[in-house]
User: Which sequence fits this backbone?
């Protein structure tokens, strides 16, 4: 991940779908948010849920989607150096662009 940049890795899960995940990176200046939200539609109330926000360098677990929508990781590299992020995901999902 380039220095000073952010990216979002998004997965589409249907309600009840399960993923198992492991992400590993250098702890410190990399901010990680694991979150989800419903599809944004005009006039509809969006549901946003944060599962974990950290800088500790590793996260692992399983998620069964409480609702259909986008589930994923927002990564923000606040350092002056590039960082390698390793993310493994298995389960029932589709990758979102």
Assistant:
């Amino acid at each position: 991940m380039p220095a000073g940049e952010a990216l979002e890795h998004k997965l589409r899960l249907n309600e009840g779908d399960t993923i198992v995940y492991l992400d590993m990176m250098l702890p410190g200046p990399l901010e990680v948010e694991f979150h989800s939200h419903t599809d944004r539609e005009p006039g509809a109330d969006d549901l946003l849920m944060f599962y974990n926000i950290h800088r500790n360098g590793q996260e692992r677990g399983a998620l069964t989607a409480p609702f259909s929508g986008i589930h994923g990781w927002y990564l923000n590299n606040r350092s002056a150096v590039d960082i390698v992020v390793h993310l493994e995901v298995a389960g029932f999902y589709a990758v979102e662009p």
The two ends are 17 Å apart (CA to CA).
